[in-house]
Amino acid sequence: MERLQKVIAHSGLVSRRKAEELIAEGKVKVNGKIVRELGTKVGPNDKVEVNEVPLEKEAPVYYLLYKPRGVISAVSDDKNRKVVTDFFPEIAERIYPVGRLDYDTSGLLILTNDGEFANVLMHPKHEVDKVYVAKVKGIPLRESLKKLDRGIKLEDGMTAPARTRVISVDKKKQTSIVEITIHEGRNRQVRRMFEAIGHPVMKLKRERYGFLTLQGLSVGDSRELTPHEVKQLRALAVTGQKR
User: Fold this and answer.
1) Judgement on whether residues 67 and 110 belong to the same structural domain of the protein
2) Active-site position among 102, 104, 129, 156
3) 102 an active-site residue?
4) Positions of the chain with pLDDT lower than 50, given as ranges
5) Using an 8 Å Cβ cutoff, are 68 and 107 in contact?
């Protein structure tokens, strides 16, 4: 089930803000009845009409993007900064990112126009692993990293247990490369976790999402997910995975 204005926007007919205006004006019907409440949720079998015209739903599409640093994980930006959908100029469907990567973080990002699929992947109870590689200041002690492995308290609560692995250290520059695996999606979570143990992140990249990797892609490249990959992601999110 998705919010009515979101369904209308994802159809490509109008923006979400315009969809909200149409609903408030009584120009939208669900199963033959006028709906004015913005919180109304509809499912795939509900018939939606806008100005007496049935809403045509886009065929679902699914993409993987190697997001560069300095790009916003959104479909638009009021400061006219580059956004992830700018990398899909030939795509007619109104795709949007599943979750987000920070402006200064690069790596794997999924985009789709399938709201139900996106909601399943992003739901907190679904434990899809996300693997990041971070360049951090200093050389973390094993005991410091164990704090992340057990879960560490941030301003918005305890994190779920993570998995960490030191890939390399540079004693001369006093920096380290650390791999960290989490399954939550809080804002700037990985950066805040390392800050909490006194090792600020200098550079961050998401290398894996579930079983998906960046293999074969350069920064800014994208590819369409295969039907089998989409099916696997759904199954992974619904059933969870061994951690």
Assistant:
1) yes
2) 102
3) yes
4) 242-243
5) no
